[in-house]
Amino acid sequence: MPGGLVALLDDVAVIARAAAASVDDIGVAAARAGAKAAGVVVDDAAVTPQYVRGLTADRELPIVKRIAVGSLRNKLLIILPVILVLSQFAEFLLTPLLMLGGAYLCYEGAEKLWAKVSGHGHGEDGVLKDEDTLVRGAIRTDLILSAEIMVISLNEVVDQPFFSRLAILVVVGVAITVLVYGAVGLIVKMDDAGLALAKRPSPGVARLGRGLVAAMPKLLTVLTVVGVAAMLWVGGHILLVGTDELGWHGLYGAVHHLEDAADAAAGAVGGLARWVVDTLASAVLGLLVGAVLVALASVTIHRRRAAQH
């Protein structure tokens, strides 16, 4: 009996070590997969603050929380099951579906840009949208950004067994959501922190607080611009890479040649030059596609209104 107990405990120890190694592997793989999606994560963090701009201070964090919960729901309850099933049984559908999402991002970015230029965009005429509308819009945009984050992460662990992929992507989804919306929460409450610091007796601390309060509107303006640019860039990049993966190599090949030329001309900063070329090309493509979709949507809406009258 003692010998059997020792053997059992030894087996348990082996299983525990294997489980610990598996957890370590999942953590490492999740970190690697998340790092690959870092560019989209930054874009996600830049896009979100525009949805809470103009709200009263007491509603900012509750709205960010609602969007964060919606983002987590997007990743874990919608995107994760879909991409795991598709990667297992119909991998060829992943790229077209992602491209549809990319086209929607292009439309969103172009619509916001047109609204700014023309002053006739939806919700841009001085009438504030209600909170439910804001949250729905933010979660809808997040769905596309989250889809690209999760698909990029999936591509990094596609050689893993099914349940390892599942665990890794759950870790990535939760960690990135906490990172993005934690950062957004800090950004939108920066002015409140500044007001609190401005009331401190220390002149240096009070001056820092006043600086934070003065900087907040400018920061939100910059983030709004970056957010719109990010929609066009990310959407265009999805379409650019997607066309290449579907076998239409001309457009991607032309951009790749421009990257090579920029790399050769830039010398030591060739990597940065390649990124700039890719980003600009993706943004231009996103703007063109978005402009076409906005025009089509405008014609459709106009015809629908004419038919109603």
Share of β-strand residues: under 5%
Structural class: mainly alpha
The total of helices stands at 10
First and last CA, distance: 89 Å
Shape: globular
- Helical content (DSSP H or I, runs of 4+): over 70%
Give the helix/strand layout.
Blueprint: H1 2-36, H2 38-47, H3 57-89, H4 94-118, H5 131-156, H6 162-188, H7 190-198, H8 203-245, H9 249-266, H10 270-308
Helix pairs in contact: 1-5, 1-6, 2-5, 2-6, 2-8, 3-5, 3-6, 4-5, 4-8, 4-10, 5-6, 7-8, 8-9, 8-10, 9-10
List keywords for this structure.
309 residues; mainly alpha; 10 helices; 86% helix; 0% strand; globular
Characterize this entry briefly.
The chain is built from ten helices and no strands. The chain has helices at 2-36, 38-47, 57-89, 94-118, 131-156, 162-188, 190-198, 203-245, 249-266, 270-308. Helix 2 runs parallel beside helix 6 (162-188) and helix 5 (131-156) packs across helix 6 (162-188).
Question: What features would you describe in this structure?
Answer:
With 309 residues, the protein is an all-alpha fold. Helix content is 86%, strand content 0%. Helix 8 crosses helix 9. The N and C termini lie far apart (89 Å).
